Amino acid sequence: MPRKKRVDRRKPRAKAAPPTAQLAKINVKVNGVQYSAEVEPRMLLVHFIRDVLGLTGTHVGCDTGNCGACTVIMDGKSVKSCNIFAVQADGAEILTVEGLARDGELHPVQQAFWEHHGLQCGFCTPGMLMQAYWLLTQNPSPTEEDVRRGLSGNLCRCTGYQKIVEAVLAAAEQMRGQQQEVR
Amino acid sequence: MAVSAIFGARVKRREDPRMITGQGRYTDDIKLSGMVYAMFLRSPYAHAKIVSINVEKARKVPGVIAVYTGKDLENKLGPVPCAWAIPNADLKVPKYMPLAVDRVRYVGDPVAVVVAESPYVARDALEQIEVEYERLPAVVNQEEAVKPEAPQLYDDVPNNIAFHWSISGGDVEKAFAEAEVVIKQRIINNRLQPTAIETRGAVAQYNQATGELTVWMTSQNPHIHRLLLAGIVGVPEHKLRVVAPDVGGGFGSKIHCYGGEAVVAFLAKELGRPVKWMEDRRENYLATIHGRDHIQYVELAAKRDGTILGLRVKAYANLGAYLSTASPGIPTILLGTMLSGCYKIPAISCEVYGVLTNTAPVDAYRGAGRPEASFIVERMVDILAHELGMDPAEVRRKNFIPPDAFPYTVATGLQYDSGNYEAALNKALELVGYQQLREEQKRLREQGRLIGIGISSYVEICGLGPSRVVRATGFGLGLWESAVVRVHPTGKVTVYTGGHPHGQGEETTFAQIVAEELGVPFEDVEVVHGDTAMIPFGTGTYGSRTTPVAGGAIAIACRRIKEKAKKIAAYLLEASEEDIEFERGKFYVKDAPERAKTIAEIALSSYLAGEGELPAGMEPGLESTAFYDPENFTFPFGTHVCVVEVDPETGEVHVKRYVAVDDCGRQINPMIVEGQVQGGVVQGMAQALWEEAVYDKDGNLLTATLSDYAVPTSADVPRIETSSTETPSPHNPLGVKGVGETGTIAATQAVVNAVVDALAHLGVRHIDPPLKAETVWRILKEKGIAK
Ligand code: FES
Ligand code: FES
């Protein structure tokens, strides 16, 4: 069956912005350290954290905000840092996985992931940890259902989630215990 | 073998401290000074001629360093090889260039590459490349592609058939002639996107003075990648170093050799600057391999009492647009030989057409051929049970290879090493409360509730594999594994393994093996992997082979060290070698246990090597290199049971229970085994219920983002109840069998069987996965259940 020739020319869509165009100055506190930097307005926060600050614990697993590998805490809220421009973080305080342990002590969430085999390849893990950390600040006594819902914006391809969920429940218990000790 | 506390213990993983603190080092974390960034321009069309490419505007974008088209690289890079030349199949391997030269054959086929000072600039520049295409008709479905009027991908591959492979054993004609029941079913094994959360990528650096090229890449098998890249890029193998750092999941997709990594290596050499490229997710979905995509016509011959007499399969495998590294062997060797499942099936035949289409290349994805085989067998057994009005557990029991029949040679020629299939089935049924569930199912059915119970008894072929057998199937390399075990003068131990674990936890389990074998503390053992500069050679991590084969190599190396250490101990203790015993890291004189030397003392002595320290004429040092070529494959097995409830209004499937009883032989670390099973089961369940790579008829991938491709979340999946039986492999040095792919090999049909069982009383016999709510709802509507 003869078909009509379909000739197509890919038209350039946009004029390229020169890489040095209009740098914006931002001040961001990350893991307790104040940084100031000049960035392109289009730079994503995750790239700022990884490439400018060199904190490579925060990962990138998608381009649609689905995987959660890039999850960090910004001004007390869990955010996907691939969905935010670095300039939007101007003045913000950010916590990444590198800031979770204090004085060489693992955070209970980290400890629980280790003890309960909550990771395999480890790629989703930083985002998972940050989301779990945030979840427990919101709900210190979650049910399994709460944890499963609370982590549903973070994908893990290795674990089937079960040991992650067990780890988060164990961390919650541990943290509740610690709080009682303080009181 | 001495029973010790470490082998079999739930030891916490030593991989974890770096990963939970953000100190893991993945390919994308590597940043070298002067590094530049590559990005590929990919075809938006599934099939087209490249009329012209104009890169002038792209070159002018500030910050752009270079732009190359397929034509520019045509004579600088060799083709991407296919490494599994299956025999007697009239295999045709079309030319597969790293960048397409004058024709593109799938959406995502790379046509040009840009190198720039930043990834943002590289992306800007991509948009400035003008490509003139002349579109050609495309074909995406393998059954369409073999029709005479179908578009042809290659001039020298008539009807798009890359091979026609077959296997048979026993008298199939006779089996069907004597059959009292014959069941026929067409089965689609749905196409999947592997979806490691880390995409693929590479960083390459060239040292002009020494001629050394180093490539860090997301690899499951760095030595194989070195071998193949050396050929494509034209760098001598000894000048090429491939490092696979931490790898964020592979599931098969990072075994294969792709053009992208070769181009990056070439660019680093050509430009004299380090080059990085990381796929974005869309690119990963378009251009990294897909899995499965098999259409099968299956016939089963049986007697009325449930005895299976024969199985006949004719299948069409979609291979995508090019033959990827292992793709010919996956839907053939790894499927056809496993069609006996757990059963005595006297006659089996299978023929497979490997078909090229305008889709991404298809290759090994977790399970690789074996899930497609076990799906066939376990679906057919269920259909048979349904047809005969028998309990599906009974039909399985009736046909199981009995435990005393091992080693057992199945009709397809494989010799299963060991098994006790009924024990695993019984355990699974007991755990799930099978009889009770059946009664409840009946009771609830009367109330209009749709409960289903699905059984999957599986056996898998792992521990790939004996090199002579593997080579006879046309695989491009033997599948032995190497290990260097080095006892340092202080008694600390470093292990260099040819396996490259990337989530499976062998940095931990291999240290457990050494701790058990040499009796040294677990903490004193370091495991090194993933760097061709440090490891003699390795064939990599896939096919559930690392623990049985690489672990076996480590055990053998340790035993050789013990032999030598024993000689030194006898010398030091002035006893005869026959009188020396070994226990928990100590050699002692049989009748005088206080006269003893530890491994550490012997190691030091072996390095000091003076008079009274090392027997005269003995080589100093205490280390051993082993290349272990297994004498057979290993055959893990088990039974999984899934319980579902189907919503009669919406068609949604709710998994109520999932019980997995697996037998992977001896377990080194049960915690890690559970993790492997749970993760695999969820992937298998995802194939059954949600995941499917979808192309439209023009070859556009409709599932090219994580918004569209339905990877399950924590909220979608149930708890997996795991348990095990233990039937050691008789020929493996450690009695282990491998467990990495169990879940995907067992789970898909357990879930599908459950859903079909829930609807069986409505006359439903088979549904092709994924069993999305819409699919099930349509059936319910047709049956007058849903509105
Ligand atoms: S990288 Fe996937 S959500 Fe941010
Ligand atoms: S541990 Fe690999 S993706 Fe979660």
Describe the structure.
The complex is a heterodimer of chains A (183) and B (787). In chain A, helix 2 (108-115) crosses helix 5. Chain A has a five-stranded mixed sheet, with helices on both faces. Chain A is of the alpha+beta class and 183 residues long. The model of chain A is unreliable at 11-18 (pLDDT under 50). Chain A has five helices and six strands; from the N terminus they run E-E-E-H-E-E-E-H-H-H-H. Chain A folds into two domains: 24-98, Ubiquitin-like (UB roll), CATH 3.10.20.30; 108-182, DNA polymerase, domain 1 (Orthogonal Bundle). Chain A has helices at residues 45-52, 108-115, 125-138, 144-150, 162-182, and strands at 6-9, 24-30, 33-39, 71-74, 77-80, 93-95. Chain B is of the alpha+beta class. Chain B folds into three domains: 31-136 and 198-248 and 254-287, Aldehyde oxidase/xanthine dehydrogenase, a/b hammerhead (Aldehyde Oxidoreductase, domain 3); 368-461 and 635-782, Aldehyde Oxidoreductase, domain 4; 480-628, Aldehyde oxidase/xanthine dehydrogenase, molybdopterin binding domain (Aldehyde Oxidoreductase, domain 4, 2-Layer Sandwich). Chain B has 21 helices and 28 strands. The longest helix of chain B has 28 residues, at 546-573. The N and C termini of chain B lie far apart (64 Å). The model of chain B has no long low-confidence stretch (mean pLDDT 97). At the A-B interface, strand 1, helix 2, helix 3, helix 4 and helix 5 of A face helix 1, helix 4, strand 6 and helix 19 of B. Residues 60-62, 65-70, 80, 82 of chain A line the site of one FE2/S2 (inorganic) cluster.
